Amino acid sequence: MKRRKFILLSGLGISAIAISTWYYKFNTPEYDQLLTEPELLSHIWDDTTIGEIGEMYRKQFSDENSERKLIKHLSDYESTEITTITEVLRKQITDDYNKGNTVMVDGWVLSRTEARQCALFSLTQTN
Amino acid sequence: MHIDARELENNSIIEGDICIVGAGAAGISIALDWMDTPYKVILLEGGGFEYDDKVQELYAGKTTGQKYFPLKSARLHYFGGTTGHWAGMCAPFDPIDFKKRDWVPNSGWPISKTDLDPFYAKANKVLKLGPYNYEYEYWNNELPNLTPFPLDNKVVWNKMWQFSQARYGNLYKKTIIEAKNIHLYTYANAVDIKTDDTISNVKEVIVKNYAGKAHTVKAKHFVMACGTIQNARILLAANSQTPQGLGNDNDLVGRYFQEHLEVASAELWLSKPFPTDLYSWDYGITKASAELAITEEVQTNEKMLNGTASLVPLSIAKYQKPRMETWQNSDPRKSLDNIFANWDEATEKAKGEKGNIERAYQLNTRIEQAPNPNSRVTLGEEKDELGVPRANLHWELTPLDKYSVRKIYQILGQQIGIAGIGRIRLNEFLRDENDDTFPDSTNGGWHHMGTTRMADDPKKGVVDSNCQVHGISNLFIAGASCYPTSGASNPTLSLTALSLRLSNYLKNKM
C-alpha cells in the first residue's frame, strides 16, 4: 500500500472512531438516573431480574435498542405541573395502564414506560 | 324407612308416588322436600352407606380428548353422593350465566336467576350455609378484615363464596331413614327405564345389584338424579324401545358435557404487604371469602366467558402439583390421599421461601366451559357387571375457552397496574395468543354439567324449563346435567336450587 493511501485510510479510520465517540458522547443526552429505576418493580425484582427483563424488552422491540432512543421515549411526556421525575414517571406508568399502553415481557404485563426503564437499566449495566 | 334391595326377594315390585333415582345432593334435597307429605317417595341409591369399591367400579369408563380424571373416581357412589368428599364451595350463578350471549354459541337458559332466587334461599338451608346473601357489602359488615384490592368495580368485582361442610351421608341419613313417607332403597342401581308403547310415559325403572337381584319400580313420576354422566348414560342405555335412547330424538343426550376449567394461570406480585382475609380460605373456619371476577359489562365488551381468579400464596402453590396429575388413581380414596400428601409437602417446602415471594400469589382460574356439542358422553362397547354399557367421556375444549382464560389475566394485569399495587405475570401457556390448546395440567373441578341440557325447544335441549324430558310426561331430570351453560360458580348450590324448583313443580302437579 502506498504511504499516502495508508495515511489517508488511517486518517479516515481515526475520524470514524472519533466521530462515533463524539456522536455517542454528545448525542446521548444527560439523563436522570431515576429513569433507570422502575420504582414499583424494584419492590418485586432484584437488579438482575430488572436487567434481564430490560434485555428481553430490547430484543422484543429492537428498534428501541439504544440508550438514546430509550431516553428520548422516557423523556417524551406531556408537560404538567408535576416537578419531580419520580412523580412524572408514576403518572406516565398509570397513564400507560389506563390507555392499555402495556407490553408483555416474559409473561409480565408491564407499562411501556417501566419496561423501557428496565431496558435502559440493562444498557447501563452492560456499558 | 330403609330397605336393602339385596335382601328383597328377587323380582320384587316397588311402588310409590314419586321415584327419585339417585341419593346424592340433588336426590336427597328433593326427598327432604317431600318429607311429611301424604305421598310415598321411593329413593333409590345404587350403593350403601359407605364406600364400596365394587359399586364404585360401576362408574368406570374411558376418557378421550383433553386429559381427564379417571371416571371411576370422579364421583362417589354411595348414599350422599359426592358430598362425601366435596370441598363445599358455594355461590349462586350470576345473572349473565342465564342470558343468551351472542358471543357464546348455544348459551341462554329458558329461566332467569330471578326464577331460581327463592330456591337458592332454600338450598342455602339444605347445604347448612349462612343466609342467602352473596354481596360483598353484607359480609364486610359481618366479618373482620375483608379489605378488597382497590380495583375499579366497573371492571373487577369481588365474587363472594360461602363454604358448606355438609356431607349428606352423615347429615341426612337418620332424617331420611326415619321419615315415614320416604322409602330409601340401597343397592338399587337403575339399569333400565321402560315406557309405554308411545314412549311418552315411563312405566317402570328396573334396578339391579351385585346380589344378582332385579326389581321393578313403579311410580307416577320419575326423577333421574344420578349425576351428569350417569343421567346421560342411563337415558342412552334405555334403548330397548327406542334405539337412540330415551329423550334422545334429537341426538342431544350426552352432548354439551361441561366442566369448570380450574387452572393455574398467572402470578400476582404485590409491591408491599396487603393485609386482608378477603381472598383466603381456611377449610372449616372461613365463613365467606372472595375471588376476583370480571363484570358483566366487561365480559360483554370483550366477548369472553364468565370466570374468576382465586389467590393461593405462591410460596406454597409453586410446590403444588396439578390436581389432574395427583388425581389419577381410579380409587377416589387413594387419589384424595395423593392430593393431600402433595399439599402437605408443598406447605412444608414453603416454609423455606422468604423475601418478595411472601407477597406473591398464584392466580387460579375458575371458568365456565363454552357449550360444545362435541364434548360428550357416549356409551362404550364394554358393559359393567350389571349389564349396562359403560360411559365414555370425550372432553373437548374450544378456542373461546382459551381466549377467555387469557383475557381474564390481561384485564387483571391492567387493573392491578392502574391500582399500583403490584404486577401480574401470565403463565407460559397463555402467552402466545395464537395457541388455543390447554396443557395436560388443566384441572377440572370434578363438576359435571350439561348432558341433558334445558331448552324450551326440543331440538335444542333434552329437558324443558321444568326439567321434564321433552315428550315424556312423567320423566324428570334433577341436577347439573340440566345446565345449558356452566357458569363461573361451582355447581352444587345451583343444582340444589334447581332440584328444589323441580320438586316444587312436581308437588303442584300431584
UniProtKB/TrEMBL annotation, chain A:
- Name under which the protein is recorded: Uncharacterized protein
Specify the species.
Algibacter agarivorans
- Print the organism lineage: Bacteria, Pseudomonadati, Bacteroidota, Flavobacteriia, Flavobacteriales
Automatic annotation (TrEMBL), chain B:
- Pinpoint the Glucose-methanol-choline oxidoreductase C-terminal domain residues: 371-498
User: Which superkingdom?
Assistant: Bacteria
Which Pfam families does the record cross-reference, listed alphabetically? DAO (PF01266), GMC_oxred_C (PF05199)
Residue ranges annotated for the FAD dependent oxidoreductase domain, each copy included: 17-228
Query: Which metal ions or organic cofactors does this protein require, according to UniProt?
Result: FAD
Q: Which UniProt keywords apply?
A: FAD, Flavoprotein, Oxidoreductase
Alphabetized SUPFAM superfamilies for the sequence: FAD/NAD(P)-binding domain
Record keyword Flavoprotein present: yes
Q: Which PANTHER family match?
A: PYRANOSE 2-OXIDASE
Q: What family does the database annotate?
A: Belongs to the GMC oxidoreductase family.
- Name the chain's protein: GMC family oxidoreductase
Q: Which organism does this record belong to?
A: Algibacter agarivorans
